[in-house]
């Protein structure tokens, strides 16, 4: 079996080094045996302090900012325990699906300069079997949200944020008396958790409705009365047997909403190039480089 040493743990003997295909030799730093690719660069910018206080963090499969770590080890981000205690009153006011009153005494791998985030806000992990990085919210703070740029299949309960509101999207098979009788048709449930329409819920059966829009427009299937919301904030389409969520309005292309649509990373999300996230008052832009030849000049 041919082994790509891009994803191998620290090489042991000289014989092992010689036995590895030399085409991948540039993936390693010669001094510390750091695997150079794939490489994730995160740029943190605090919306309250301005971009002049941006911080950059670099992660590879076995390093954080140039320091060697075990391959596949979780990289933890959050506030230090001392600073997180200062923000405990702020987190107590959050909705229950985001907040957590527990403080974890374990130190983070990287502390964020943001008083609004939790003690263990999120983590990044490299999956060696897939050769990819993933990011996930730790449910111990204000939530980690991924900006939606393309269609997202609703295959589990998803919490979506837009403007000052949160909603949960759920998909269920069509049932009668709790018995599934049609596996083709699927029920979309939209329930608002926070904001002007809190606790309101609507359901749509794919056999009757293939497109559901949410927004300020009177033509939307779910009219949302909030001046900060776009006329069409998001569109949910039943296609190829799934309900798929899009930001903004679909009309000969995808016209995104003004303030964006954000997915709570409650489950692992694959890190991709030019991904953008937010947590607390912090925005996070991501640059992913898979090899030396992929570097952008």
Shape type: globular
Low-confidence stretches: 1-25, 99-105
Strand content: 35-45%
Order of helices and strands: HEEEEEHHEEEEEEEEEEEEEEEEEEE
The rounded Rg comes to 22 Å
Largest sheet: 12 strands, antiparallel
- Share of residues in helices: under 10%
Please provide the count of β strands.
24
Report how far apart the termini are.
35 Å
Helix/strand-derived category reads: mainly beta
Give the rounded overall mean pLDDT: 81
Supply the number of helical segments: 3
In which order are the strands of the major sheet placed?
Answer: 4-3-2-1-24-23-9-21-11-12-13-14
Q: What can you tell me about this protein's structure?
A:
The protein is built from three helices and 24 strands. Residues 1-25 and 99-105 have low confidence and may be disordered. The chain has a twelve-stranded antiparallel β-sheet with strand order 4-3-2-1-24-23-9-21-11-12-13-14, with no helix packed on it. Strands 6-5-7-8-22 form a five-stranded mixed β-sheet, with no helix packed on it. A five-stranded mixed β-sheet has the order 10-18-17-15-16, with no helix packed on it. Helices cover 6% and strands 42% of the residues. It has helices at residues 14-19, 81-86, 88-92; strands spanning 39-46, 50-60, 63-64, 67-68, 75-78, 110-111, 122-127, 132-137, 145-147, 152-153, 158-162, 165-176, 179-194, 201-205, 211-215, 222-223, 234-239, 242-247, 249-250, 254-255, 262-264, 269-270, 276-279, 282-289. It is globular and about 60 Å long.
Q: What are the key terms here?
A:
3 helices; 297 residues; single chain; mainly beta; globular
């Amino acid at each position: 079996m041919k082994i790509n040493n891009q994803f191998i743990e620290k090489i042991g003997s000289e014989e092992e080094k010689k036995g590895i295909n030399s085409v991948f030799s540039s993936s390693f730093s010669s001094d510390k045996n750091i695997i150079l690719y794939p490489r994730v660069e995160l740029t943190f910018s605090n919306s309250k302090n301005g971009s002049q206080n941006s911080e950059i963090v670099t992660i590879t499969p076995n390093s954080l900012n140039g320091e060697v770590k075990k391959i596949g080890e979780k990289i933890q981000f959050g506030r230090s325990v001392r600073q997180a205690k200062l923000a405990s009153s702020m987190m107590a006011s959050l909705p229950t699906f985001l907040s957590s009153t527990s403080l974890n005494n374990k130190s983070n791998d990287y502390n964020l300069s943001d008083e609004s985030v939790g003690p263990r806000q999120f983590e990044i992990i490299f999956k060696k079997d897939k050769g990819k990085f993933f990011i996930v919210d730790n449910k111990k703070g204000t939530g980690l949200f991924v900006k939606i740029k393309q269609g997202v299949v609703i295959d589990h309960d998803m919490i979506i944020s837009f403007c000052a509101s949160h909603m949960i999207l759920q998909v269920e098979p069509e049932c009668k008396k709790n018995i599934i009788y049609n596996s083709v048709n699927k029920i979309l449930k939209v329930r608002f958790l926070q904001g002007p329409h809190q606790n309101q819920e609507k359901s749509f059966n794919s056999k009757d409705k293939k497109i559901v829009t949410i927004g300020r427009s009177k033509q939307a299937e779910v009219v949302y009365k909030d001046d900060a919301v776009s006329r069409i904030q998001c569109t949910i389409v039943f296609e190829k047997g799934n309900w798929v969520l899009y930001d903004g309005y679909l009309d000969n292309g995808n016209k995104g909403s003004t303030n964006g649509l954000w997915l709570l990373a409650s489950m692992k999300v694959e890190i991709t190039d030019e991904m953008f996230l937010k947590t607390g008052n912090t925005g996070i832009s991501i640059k992913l480089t898979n090899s030396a030849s992929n570097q952008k000049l």
